[in-house]
Structure formats: structure tokens, C-alpha cells
């Protein structure tokens, strides 16, 4: 299985975009753990360009990486055990240590909570119940890690079962042409609009079935794509029409957002149109991004191994850095542009400190999603992606 550097760069870029997206959540009217006041309606317009596909793409590239990891670990059982260690240890660490400041800031800034952080941590966070509408303890943004672990276990079970001898050949035939663009869109229409109507994710792994119908197939598609030169070539061939379709679908949501900004409630038919437009936007953008990455970014660079390794630690810490950063900045009452710039710098600095510091401490490496250190300091410890 040849390494596709374009997919590495796409993974790095997707997580960088996710961090900027979560910074943007501070400024729009949509619910988030920390908010500026007043919010800025127009910020939603660039965020709507990202919102439909960002998570589906992350699950797809995680499925893609899982194919290489399965080959590395040879058996499905070893793969599941290894991935469980790499995912569940950081998830537990995140729930216990990284996420609590987010809940405290949300309670103090939006719910009138007055107790100190220490009191919150020792008396309220581990209540295993509700506090003013918030479930505690919680995983917040780390829900993605929990879902990824679940999909990994299911993949391990599927791989351990007898596999039809021409399964990959069938994948190549189905997705080796225009089907790579059209068939997933039809699946999204059927599952996300016609049979069910999905407006958002619940982040509750047991009660988020409609989201699983989007994310798990994307994960499996990524696994199949990692072994399919035909499907990858089709994405390269069809990326321009896909980009046009994604932009056209996005234009529909922009018109709706401009007409009904912020938390305004449009008529039902307008809401339905928004949900319909979201589906081609989701998959067409993914096809376009993968096609561009494969055609133009499939080359290595000296920064790639470090950035590939840094993705998971960045993901673990970034939202807490954002939320705590907002809490620090709110008393300063900065202009919105200055607040955005300061918050971006705080978040980037926190991510790098968390990664560069944690990778040098042997016992901390598993907590932040890194493998045990087995290389000399002059060499990257690993280029194996975790997410």
C-alpha cells in the first residue's frame, strides 16, 4: 500500500480548519461553551462553507489511515487492542483533566454559576448527572474520539469475518467512475433527509443513530479508498464538477442565512431546503478536496511527519484553549477583530506548548495521543496518524 502524502496533508489541513471553526463558534449566535457579546451574524457565512463536510471528512481520513494501521498490526485483534489504547487513554485523560475547564467557563459565563473552579472540580463535575442543563462529567469535543473508537472496533469485527474475495474489486467498480460523486450523495439524501431528518448531532453515542448513518459509512469508505487506485483516480477526474456542485449548494445556504441570520427561524420549507442543500455540499466538497490533495499535494516535506504526529495533541487541547482564552479576554472588552486575533494566537500557542512539551515526557505521551518514544531526539518518534 503506497503512502499518499496528499491524504496526510488533507488530514493536517482538516484539523487546522476545525480549530479555526471552533474559534469562529465564539463569535456566532450558535450555541457554544463560551461566547462574545454581541455575536456577529456574518461570521456564520464562511463557517457554513465548512460546517457540512468537516466531520464527515475527518471520519473518512481516519478510515483511510486505519487501512495502513491494520496492515501494520497484521491481525484484527491486535489492531483493535492497539487502537483502543491509543484512543481510550487520551479520551479518559481528556474527560478527567482537559474538558472540565470548558464546563466551568460555560456555567460561570452563561448560567450564573459562582463557585470557584476547584469547588466545581471537587464537588460538581463528577456528579454523573445534570447541573443547570449540562451533563457532567462530559467529553465535549472529544466525542469524536469516542465515535472513532466505536467505528474502529466495528471495523475490527468486520475484518475478522470472512471477506468476500472480490470485495475490493466491487468497491473499485462502484466508485471508480461518476459513482464516487453521485452514490454517496444519494445515500445522504436517503438517510439524512428522506427517511430521517438530521439537523445536528447529539454527541450521545447511543442516541445519535442518524449521525452514525453518515459518519460510519464515510469511515468505511475511507478504508476502501485506501486500497482503491480506481476510486482515487475518479476523485481526481471529477474534482472540478464536484467543486462546482459544492459551491452551488453552499450558495443556497448562504442565501438562507442572509435572509434569516443568527437564530432566526425560517419557514419550514426554507429549513427543508437548507437540509437538502447540505447533502450535496457535504460529499461534493469532500470529493473536490481529496481530488485536489491527490493531484497537487501528493509530495513529502520535512514538516509533514511532525505535523502528522501533532494532529491528535492539537485536537485534544484546542477547544479548552479556546474556551479558557475567551474567559481571559472577555474582561478586556476588545474589538472583535482584536479578540479574534488574540484568541487565535492563544489557541495556537497552547496547542504547540501542549504537543512539544508532552512529547518529551515519556509517561505523558500516551495521555496526549502519542506512541511511546522509541526514536532518538533527532528523529520523529512516529509518522503514524492516530486520528
UniProtKB/TrEMBL annotation:
Residues 5-355 form the Acyltransferase domain. InterPro entries: Acyl_transf_3_dom (IPR002656), Glucan_succinyl_AcylTrfase (IPR050623). Pfam families: Acyl_transf_3 (PF01757). GO terms for molecular function: acyltransferase activity. The chain crosses the membrane at residues 12-32, 44-66, 87-105, 141-162, 174-195, 215-235, 242-260, 280-298, 310-330, 336-357. It comes from the Bacteria. Keywords: Acyltransferase, Membrane, Transferase, Transmembrane, Transmembrane helix. This is Acyltransferase.
